[in-house]
Amino acid sequence: MKPLVLVLVLLSGCGLPTPDDTKCLRGTLEADLALNAPFTGPGVVDGGIPAGNYVIAATYLQGKPTQQAMSLFQSLVDPITRELPTTDGLIGARFGNSSTCLTARTLTVWRDEAAMYRFVTSAPHAAAMGKTSELSRGASVTTHWVDTEAGATFEKAAQMLAADDGPLH
C-alpha cells in the first residue's frame, strides 16, 4: 500500500505554497482534497467497509511548507505504509491530501480499540508521532470514535476532528 506517497508527490513539487491557515481548518474538507482509491485493507469488500461496529480513527496534519519537512515526512511514512496493511485488526484505510493547504488526512477503520492502539504504539508509527513538531505547522490533531461503517467518511472525520480539543501539534 503506497497511498501516502501521493501526499509527498503533491506536496513536494516545485515551490511549496504558503497555506492560508484561516481557510485550512481540520473541520473543513479542503476544496482540493485529493483522495486515494476507495478503502484498502484486509477487511474491505468491493472498496467499502462491511456492515458492523468499528473504531474509526482520523488524523489531520498541517505540514510545514519546507522541503526538509516533506523529506522527513516521506521517510516516516514509508515504514508505516509497509506495516499498516498487515496490522492485525485493521479493516481498511484511506488517505487524502491538499496541495494548497499542505495537509494530509488519514481515515482508518479498526476491529477494536486494542488493535488501533497496537498500531499507534508500533515502532514506525511511534517514530512518526515523535517527529510531529518537525512536520506540523501547529494545528495537527488525531481522534477516534466508535461508529458503524456509515461513519467511516472524511466528512464525519472532519466533524470529529473539529470537535476534538487536542492535543494540537
CATH architecture: 2-Layer Sandwich
Count of strand segments: 5
Uncertain stretches: 1-14
Terminus-to-terminus distance = 26 Å
**Mean of residue pLDDT?**
87
Q: What top-tier CATH class fits best?
A: Alpha Beta
Q: Estimate percent helicity.
A: 25-40%
Provide the CATH topology. Answer: Alpha-Beta Plaits
Could you give the order of strands across the largest sheet? 1-3-4-2-5
Give the count of helical stretches: 6
Largest sheet: 5 strands, antiparallel
Please tell me the total number of domains: 1
Give a nutshell description of this structure.
This protein is an alpha+beta fold and 169 residues long. It is built from six helices and five strands. It is globular.
Keywords:
five-stranded antiparallel beta sheet, alpha+beta, 6 helices, 5 strands, 169 residues
Question: Can you describe this structure?
Answer:
Helix 1 (3-11) runs antiparallel to helix 2 and helix 2 (67-83) runs antiparallel to helix 4 (123-130). This protein has a five-stranded antiparallel sheet with strand order 1-3-4-2-5, with helices on both faces. It has helices at 3-11, 67-83, 113-120, 123-130, 132-135, 154-163; strands at 34-35, 53-62, 90-98, 103-110, 141-148. With 169 residues, it is of the alpha+beta class. It has one domain (3-14, 23-163): Alpha-Beta Plaits, CATH 3.30.70.
Summarize the topology.
Layout (H helix, E strand, L loop, with lengths): L2 H9 L22 E2 L17 E10 L4 H17 L6 E9 L4 E8 L2 H8 L2 H8 L1 H4 L5 E8 L5 H10 L6
Antiparallel strand pairs: 1-3, 2-4, 2-5, 3-4
